[in-house]
Every structure is written in structure tokens, then in C-alpha cells.
What does this fold into?
Amino acid sequence: MGQVASAGDNAAMESFFSLLQKNVLNRRRWTTREDLRLAIITWIERTYHRRRRQARLGRLTPIEYEAIMTTQVALAA
It folds into this structure.
């Protein structure tokens, strides 16, 4: 990934923008660009990043990973 004209990059971005459009853009009419900007940022930070499975976390969502790590820390104490 990261190369010019990489099919993997294109597929990942198309998937992201499809989810963004379905979950934010098409939900209602936006009165100002600022309202839309805040809605996009909120969706990315609260929903997309927290629920998306991440390779660095062993294909777990951040919420799943945090639950596992919290349990392990509690058991170690």
C-alpha cells in the first residue's frame, strides 16, 4: 500500500468513503459546511476508529482490545 495507482489503496478508500456517505452525508441535509465538518469528525472519532478492526491490534476493534488489556491488567494486580 502507499504506491501510486495501487488497487489496494483504492479499494480501502472507496470502502471508507462509501461508509462515510451512507452514515453521515446521506442522513440529512446540512445547513452549513461547519455542521457537516463536525459531523464527519465525530463519526470518524466515535464510530469508525472505535469499531473498525485494526491489524496492529490483532484484527480486534479498539474496544475489544481495550477490554482484553484491562482484564489482563486487573488480573496481574
Summary: Residues 23 and 50 are 15 Å apart (CA to CA). Residues 7-25 form the longest helix (19 residues). The chain has a mean pLDDT of 81.
